[in-house]
Design brief:
alpha/beta; Deoxyhypusine Synthase; 6-stranded parallel beta sheet; 15 helices; 43% helix; globular
């Protein structure tokens, strides 16, 4: 944008000497800006900050809307909610990808994530294996417990108690579930599976209304975990694989390249795409790379039309998790015309607020659902229903 023209800078005394003093008002009217510059200044100063008025706020929706008219991370949080709303009201019905990383289940966000899926706010999930494992863990009746980050961890090791910052889990029940997942793999036909296929199969066995995987299975939403080996689900499948090797039989193997192939087909078969990133890590990069990989199918999607991220990672270390969504534009992952926002607030605080805004406004209920038809590794159909 062209800079407004100004007259030469005056020192403070000269500004006062050349100003018109409004005696009845008790202030100076300075004359050292050109009319063009005064107009530009008026434009810049056109939107005053609005104080957050708790006496007028009664709902999560009202609080988040008020945040959007404030500053610092409050405004960023409000902006994320507004961009998510744009995703869900776009007439082209973009496919919304949800990327999940970090200790979200330990943080108490399991039901929040389940509600995001159940209420139709997203269409495809990409998660770390740990989050999905801990979802299965709770679906099987096991629990996370309040802990103390200052406790003697040597004591915990002796008691087979594992610590996730200020949360405890029972390692005995982790081992029990690891082996249960291995035994579940025994029931599947030997061969190569994408993480989506394996997770779909295990999701069908979960009987828990608050489960992330069960909610996704019920709505027909695909769930990918591209680094599933790096989790307790991977440990369970490795236990299965070890027995298969020892017994000289074929077993279940996760094909990570099939994950790439399947997810990219979701991208290229969508009218437009959008992304919601909770933390960063592999899920963020995997969703973004699926846009880049579209060239394999001879298609340039133009990048995500919308994107938001809630994270505590920061850009200046150069890592992917904290990289800005503007930086992703240089890679073609986010469109040059995209609406995007980032909020640097830890997700246990920020996600319930932003998701709550969308849920309470009923934004997901107004969208037709997507129906995925798979003949793995091919996505044979992607269409809207309802």
């Amino acid at each position: 944008m062209k800079a407004a023209q100004t007259t030469p800078k005056l020192n403070a005394q000269s500004r006062i000497e050349t100003a018109d003093y409004q005696k009845d008002q008790g202030y100076y009217v300075f004359q050292d800006l050109t009319p063009e510059a005064r107009g530009r200044k008026s434009e810049i100063l056109s939107q005053p900050i609005e104080a957050i008025d708790l006496e007028k706020i009664n709902t999560v929706e009202e609080l988040v809307r008020a945040y959007g008219n404030a500053s610092i991370q409050a405004r960023n949080l409000g902006s994320c909610a507004q961009v998510w709303e744009q995703m869900l009201t776009d007439a082209d019905r973009p496919t919304v990808f949800l990327g999940l990383a970090g200790p979200l289940i330990a943080a108490g966000l399991r039901k929040v994530i389940r509600d995001i899926i159940h209420c139709g706010l997203v269409d495809c999930v990409v998660s770390t294996g740990a989050i999905l494992y801990q979802d299965i863990y709770q679906a099987k009746g096991f629990k996370h417990y309040r802990g103390d980050p200052k406790i003697d961890d040597r004591l915990l090791r002796d008691l087979y108690v594992d610590r996730i910052y200020d949360t405890y889990v029972d390692e005995d029940t982790f081992w029990r579930l690891d082996c249960s997942i291995g035994r579940f793999a025994d029931t599947l036909k030997p061969g190569l599976y994408s993480s989506r296929q394996f997770l779909e199969a295990i999701s069908a066995t979960l009987n828990d209304e608050n489960s992330i995987l069960a909610a996704a299975h019920k709505r027909g939403i695909p769930v990918f975990s591209p680094a599933i080996n790096d989790s307790s689900i991977g440990i369970g499948i490795t236990e299965h694989y070890h027995r298969c090797v020892r017994e000289g039989r074929q077993g279940v193997v996760i094909d990570s390249i099939r994950d790439n192939y399947e997810l990219t087909q979701v991208v290229i078969n969508s009218k437009a795409t959008a992304a919601v990133y909770i933390a960063g890590g592999v899920p963020k990069n995997f969703i973004n790379d699926s846009v880049v990989m579209s060239y394999i199918f001879g298609k340039d999607t133009g990048g995500h039309r919308y994107a938001i991220q809630l994270t505590t990672d920061v850009p200046h270390w150069g890592g992917l998790s904290g990289s800005t969504l503007s930086e992703a534009t240089s890679w073609g992952k986010v469109s040059k015309k995209a609406s995007h926002a980032m909020c640097f607030v830890e997700p246990s605080v920020s996600l319930p607020l932003v998701a709550g805004y969308c849920v309470k406004r009923g934004l997901g209920r107004k969208r037709p659902a997507l129906q995925f038809s798979w003949d793995s590794p091919r996505l044979t159909s992607l269409k809207t229903v309802g």
